[in-house]
Specification:
CATH superfamily of chain A: P-loop containing nucleotide triphosphate hydrolases
CATH topology of chain A: Rossmann fold
Oligomer: heterodimer
Order of helices and strands of chain A: EEEHEEHEHHEHEHEE
Helix content of chain B: over 70%
Order of helices and strands of chain B: HHHHHHHHHH
Shape of chain A: globular
Number of helices of chain B: 10
Largest sheet of chain A: 6 strands, mixed
Number of strands of chain B: 0
Distance between the termini of chain B: 55 Å
CATH architecture of chain A: 3-Layer(aba) Sandwich
Structural class of chain B: mainly alpha
Largest interface: A-B, 22 and 19 residues
Number of domains of chain B: 2
Structural class of chain A: alpha/beta
Strand order of the largest sheet of chain A: 6-7-8-3-9-10
Chain lengths: 197, 269
């Protein structure tokens, strides 16, 4: 069962941070912009240099080849990027049922990326991430550009998958209501550390 | 047809220089702010080429291998500096100079040595009449290819940082994450020489062939040498560009396959 452990993680002005995220646990982070929430997630995904250690199921990040680590400890950036013309070209495996649950039509894979709205891209980015079958989700404002209905859809889908696959989740959110709904624990990122609420 | 060159005297060159002075006067009249630069560049041409003539004359007389080697290294060093100067975002530290220089060194020297020993075959193989001009042609052209490739690679990696990182986040390895950019950078580096091959002889009479014909070689001999040079340059530029784009892409990532754009510095906009 996926269990994420941080040992004296330091990045820029943040840390050292010790944290344990249990299987099926959703941890929410909030805090003013510039506090270092995104840096924190990027350090856990090993996209940027950092000090300290990160473990997945007691195996250090250093025991993984970097791409293997990032497939399992999956980071959803606040703004998704697309580099091919068609949506489908960005997907390896496709689970139609998931598309439906996020309110995306069957033909959305045939869309041109340039014609998708911000909200559509955001939902497609979530599905693209889930297609890798990650064990840990690091979500940077996953519903930041979504309307209330789609926000609920994303929350429901993530919670369902978390419960089923026992994923460990770190979720950055600015919405107090959302944190109420989904968080098992809530930390505010401030003064270079995580403060439990 | 005689086989000797009509020698040029100082009067002949002075007349040609007069044309450049005329151009300088014209640019001054047009207020282009270029006349001083035209004149200085003209003086540089005279001094540099006459010096080169002196050095080559000494070299051809002595045929000293160590001296030829020294000249070759100086040529490489200057070409390396030129590559770096053409970068908008060169690598920091030793890589800024070393990366392009290393690629040019391996590719240009290997191909020149190969051509000297197995194709042209002068006696001795390092005969300066052959080795120095061949190496010069190689370096001059690989320099362009390497500079274009490297500049395109680093510029685009800089601009497409978010995309590269997104691909890394989705579990692609560094090679795959920068694949599109390095492929395009390679193409950019190769286009000039491929175009030059296609245009050779129809749109342009290459400088080397012009020189050889003026110096009294038969046009067919000159053409054959030009073909040899074209092929060497193309292969050399190609190999150097491939090496540059690979080394450059590799250097943009660290051992944990993270994109490290702080390894590039911003010189100018």
């Amino acid at each position: 069962m996926p269990e994420l452990k941080l040992e004296s993680l330091k990045v820029a002005h943040l840390g050292p941070i010790d944290l344990m995220v249990q299987p099926s646990e959703i941890i929410c982070l909030s805090g003013t912009s510039g506090a270092g929430k995104s840096l924190f997630l990027r350090a856990i995904a090993d996209i940027i240099p950092h000090q300290g250690q990160v473990f997945l199921d007691d195996r250090s990040v250093l025991e993984y080849v970097a791409p293997q680590w990032r497939k399992q400890v999956a980071l959803l950036p606040a703004e998704s990027q697309w580099w091919q013309d068609s949506v489908a070209a960005h997907f390896n495996t496709i689970d139609k049922a998931l598309f439906e649950q996020l309110g995306l039509q069957d033909d959305s894979l045939q869309w041109q990326v340039s014609r998708c709205s911000t909200g559509e891209k955001q939902r497609l980015a979530i599905l693209r991430l889930l297609a890798n079958k990650p064990k840990v989700l690091l979500l940077d404002e996953p519903t930041g550009s979504l309307d209330p209905q789609n926000t609920k859809r994303v929350e429901a889908l993530i919670r369902k998958i978390v419960a089923k696959e026992k994923l460990a989740v770190v979720w950055v959110s600015h919405s107090e209501e959302q944190i109420e709904r989904i968080a098992d624990r809530h930390f505010v990122v401030a003064d270079g550390g995580l403060n439990l609420q | 047809m005689t086989n000797t060159v009509i020698p040029l005297g100082s009067v002949d060159l002075s007349i040609a220089a007069g044309l450049v002075v005329l151009l300088a006067v014209l640019t001054w009249q047009l207020r282009l702010g270029m006349s001083q630069r035209v004149l200085i560049a003209g003086v540089r041409t005279v001094v540099q080429l006459l010096l080169l003539g002196l050095v080559l004359k000494y070299l051809f007389d002595t045929r000293h291998l160590a001296l030829i080697g020294l000249i070759a290294i100086v040529m490489l060093a200057v070409a390396g500096r030129e590559v770096m100067a053409r970068q908008q975002r060169p690598f920091t530290g030793i890589w800024g100079y070393g990366l392009g220089t290393l690629s040019m060194f391996i590719s240009s020297f290997a191909i020149t040595l190969f051509a000297l020993n197995f194709i042209v075959g002068p006696e001795p193989w390092y005969l300066p009449q052959y080795s120095i001009p061949l190496l010069g042609m190689m370096l001059g052209n690989t320099m362009t290819g390497v500079a274009l490739t490297l500049d395109h690679l680093t510029q685009n990696a800089w601009q497409q940082r978010a995309i590269i990182e997104q691909r890394l986040m989705l579990g692609e390895d560094w090679r795959s994450a920068i694949k599109d950019i390095s492929r395009r950078s390679l193409r950019t580096g190769l286009i000039p020489i491929v175009n030059a091959m296609a245009a050779a002889g129809i749109i342009s009479i290459p400088g080397m062939m012009t020189g050889q014909v003026l110096a009294g070689s038969s046009p067919m001999d000159a053409a054959k040498y030009q073909i040899l040079i074209m092929f060497m340059i193309t292969a050399g530029t190609g190999f150097a560009a491939v090496m540059t784009s690979w080394l450059g892409a590799r250097r943009l990532f660290d051992e944990r396959q993270r994109l490290r754009l702080e390894r590039l510095k911003v010189l100018r906009d």
